[in-house]
Amino acid sequence: MTKNQKVLTWLEEMKALVKPDNVVWITGDQAQLDELRKEATASGEIIELNKEKLPGCYYHRTAVNDVARVEDRTFICTPTKEEAGPINNWMDPKEAYSMLGKLYDGAMKGHTMYVIPYIMGVYGSPFAKVGIELTDSIYVVLNMDIMTRVGNKALEVIGDDGDFVKCLHAKKDINPDERYIVHFPQDNTIWSINSGYGGNVLLGKKCFALRIASAMARREGWMAEHMLILGVENPKGEVKYVCAAFPSACGKTNLAMLIPPEYLKQQGYKVWTVGDDIAWLRMGEDGRLWAMNPEAGFFGVAPGTSEKTNFNALESTKKNTIFTNVALNNDDMTVWWEGLDKNPPENATEWMGAKVNGKEYTASGNKLANPNSRFTAPASNCPCISKEFENPQGVPISAIIFGGRRAKCAPLVYQSRNWQHGTFVGATMASETTAAAAGAVGVVRRDPMAMKPFAGYNMADYWGHWLEMGKKLGDKAPKIFHVNWFRKDENDEFMWPGFGDNMRVLLWILNRCENKVEAEETAIGYVPYVDDINIEGLNIDKKTMKDLLAIDKKHWIEDIEDDSTGIKKYFAKFGDRLPKEMKEELSTLEKNLEK
Ligand code: OXD
Ligand code: MN
Prior knowledge:
Helix content is 31%, strand content 22%. With 595 residues, it is α+β, with helices and mostly antiparallel strands. The longest helix has 17 residues, at 204-220. The protein is globular. The chain starts with a helix and ends with a helix. Oxalic acid (OXD) binds next to loops.
């Protein structure tokens, strides 16, 4: 398969450790993947869905104890704890290898080990990187085939001597007490054991493309970010690209696949999706920041996805898709989840495998699909996939957008004063839980750049790296913005319609990038003048727009000072490693708020 001695030596070591019965190389050949689909169907690991309605689609159920990423069992094993920083779990690398070595010993006895060479990024791109995942799960092979570019091409990329990220996954007994997702950034190595859930086992995604890649990116002078990438095409046919980082459940996939409101569609505006979750960014020869989506598919949350909320995501799942932990409609072998439509199938199997009358079951408040049930869909299925999706250079970025769920604090949109201030805006990003429980006001969780669970090294150093990148990019750096689609009024109602109407805000952002619109300078940055966000066709008046854009200094001071979640308290965790520029930005904000 390959003459690359680094691959062969590692493979022998891993074989000696996990002791599989057989070893099968995944070549990328469709006939081989078809055989694996047949084998997994015969064993019950996957179920084939309706051939007419969902051609090439399969269904899979994970263990009930294994339905999400496990952040408390995710480790960054840098040589020192300081390098991993205060918000990552850390283990000494030697101890981790030794402890996990015992768990892996013989873990694949009686199983076949699949060797999956894969590319993160476009084949032929100088910015693509290769990983090899060893796994005893056909489900993993089939998902990796959708999410990455698998097969011999990856071996071709590394040639006889190139490096790769070493990924080892064994299902073992899916024992949650011995489940570990462990990263060794200095060795480009990932070890995952006792899980079968996507985010823990599709090692190209969060483990490689974010945690390991963020550490590589720092060493090599680029950035690996938890960001969507989209293009906005104007009526003249010019396309401008933006990246956006939002924490989970803040609408990243929805924004990436947005359908413009009618008045803009009629003028000829379009949105093109380049990526919905991860962006690799680097400085191009022209000095600008360029972004590439390292993935080839979408691993999207199913519940809440409907024709209305995200038509393009739903369309993407109509063929060659794997559904995990949704509900089955036994009458026609299709799938269902909460929020798809108002008609739960009567003859259903819920996500844990029990046959139920779906109508009665959901009427009693039960959920047919797990709230974190997923679709794994090829990006090529997406009706609005960008024609630059396969461009080996990626796309040039005009704006970076941070966002969170803030009922009160952040206005609908504002622009940072410059890259350093924008880095501070990202570093202090937070999202609030809704005030559903009695007495509870939104609980703020800090999630810097939406990377809290994904930075492969000390977050303070990661901010330092952002500042470095800004210095390199100089005045060609993208402008940095913050949005908040989730502001609420005094009746606890959302004030902004969100979804496609977010395009109205994107246009203000792009106009700012091109100096086409003025803005008001405030304590926190530049805020739109009320008339500069188009509200044609919306059920919103000027007064609401004013409120959406208002800055209440009291809330901002609380955000800095709060005893448990405030910025000061958060920054203090990082001690001396906190870049001085972040301290400067904090005191500027404090001074501005005092005025
Ligand atoms: C996530 C995901 O958990 O994209 O952020 O799956
Ligand atoms: Mn994500």
